[in-house]
Specification:
By secondary structure, the chain is of the alpha+beta class. It has 3 domains: about 90 residues, Arc Repressor Mutant, subunit A (Orthogonal Bundle), CATH 1.10.10.10; about 150 residues, 2-Layer Sandwich (Beta-Lactamase); about 90 residues, Enolase-like, domain 1, CATH 3.30.390. The protein contains 12 helices and 11 strands. The strands form 3 sheets. The protein has a 6-stranded mixed sheet, sandwiched between helices.
């Protein structure tokens, strides 16, 4: 199911104009060059002269679906044109049997953690579509601390490992206030395991830490350093992780050959908060969402579109995947790929969680 982002203000146009607009958009998607009336009259089997096509293109331009970038050039689609194309004119491309097999094999890898499943799906859809992908995962339900471990790695440094009830593992390096014997780290590790085992992540607080310090004779600076690592691990488990794949794919498109624009894109991909906001836009939908150009609200960089899908378990979001590319992206193939990925993910979630779960 495709979710339309917005189609307000799109007036009715006749079938001939729709055919011409569709042809302009598909030609521009593939060749990234303004499309002229002669090209369209040759392509469409409508017995239309170039003059007739020019008149229709002029009407489409007045209606805001296409634009002429400069005098004597052909036309290119506008965001409004792409929106009509995605909502009404486009036919979904069928993936090849080999592409479907690649997707299913990539996801059928005996994965037992949902976050890894979403990450694998994001990687494979970037590979299939040749665009940049982003994914975000979130643990479901109330998470509990399953285990903690402190591992000395070098003088005055230790690795704090946190394991949640869902099997998520996070580790952080902490700086210790002084030289600490390995036996002392083992003692603190055992103590924290005893105190925090099965503690809900939401219950973890510094008031709780103070109660541990009051009860046991442990150097407060040392305890606070270790707790800082534990708290960071808990934060990482509780908050959505954002992963990217195929970032360099954007440089295959002439729109991003400009060094400044390329740098803007790289900076945006490094800004996890922006990517998280993009994926959050799709959370309420039950299908694939298409955001075109300014609809993405990515003010720092123009000319991008995003196709997203969110996965839900018992009506709780467990993750989202997005494809980012130029506004002339191959929407047909991207959406078809998203649909196949969604079906494959649902099958794998049932293997992990059991067939009785409600998957959206």
């Amino acid at each position: 199911m495709l979710i339309n982002w917005q189609n307000e203000g799109i007036e009715l146009i006749d079938e001939r104009k729709k055919l011409i607009l569709k042809s302009i958009i598909e030609d521009y998607i593939h060749f990234a060059e303004p499309v002229g009336s002669r090209t369209i009259s040759k392509r469409l089997d409508l017995n239309l002269s170039s003059a007739t096509v020019r008149n229709e293109m002029s009407d489409l331009e007045e209606m805001g679906y296409i634009v002429q970038p400069h005098t004597s050039a052909g036309r290119v689609p506008t965001e409004k044109g792409y929106r009509l194309y995605v909502d009404e004119l486009m036919k979904l491309e069928r993936l090849t049997a080999d592409e479907i097999e690649i997707i299913r094999n990539a996801l059928d890898a005996k994965i037992n953690e949902l976050s890894q499943l979403i990450r694998n799906a994001s990687y494979i859809i970037s590979r299939i579509t040749n665009y940049t992908s982003v994914s975000m995962t979130k643990q479901t339900g109330a998470q509990r601390i399953k285990a903690l471990q402190l591992v000395p790695i070098e003088t005055r440094k230790a690795l704090v490992i946190v394991v949640s009830s869902s099997g998520a593992v996070r580790n952080n390096v902490v700086l210790l206030p002084g030289n600490v014997a390995p036996d002392e780290l083992i003692k603190i590790s055992n103590l924290l395991n005893e105190k925090l085992m099965n503690c809900e992540l939401n219950d973890f607080s510094f008031e709780f830490v103070n109660s541990i310090w009051d009860e046991f004779s442990i150097d407060k600076g040392l305890l606070l350093s270790v707790i800082e690592g534990v708290a960071e691990g808990i934060y990482q488990i509780e908050n959505p992780e954002v992963y990217t794949s195929g970032t360099a794919n954007i440089f295959n498109f002439p729109e991003f050959m400009d060094v400044y624009k390329a740098k803007q894109f790289i900076d945006m991909m490094d800004e996890k908060r922006t990517l998280r906001e993009i994926l959050n836009k799709a959370k309420t939908s039950k299908g694939v969402t298409v955001l075109i150009g300014t609809e993405t609200e990515m003010d720092k960089i123009a000319g991008l579109s995003v196709v997203t899908a969110t996965y839900k378990l018992n009506d709780v979001s467990i993750g989202s995947i997005g494809i980012i590319g130029p506004t002339r992206m191959e929407y047909s193939k991207v959406i078809s790929s998203m649909n196949i990925i969604k079906q494959a993910i649902n099958e794998e979630i049932k293997k992990i969680m059991g067939s009785s779960v409600d998957i959206r």
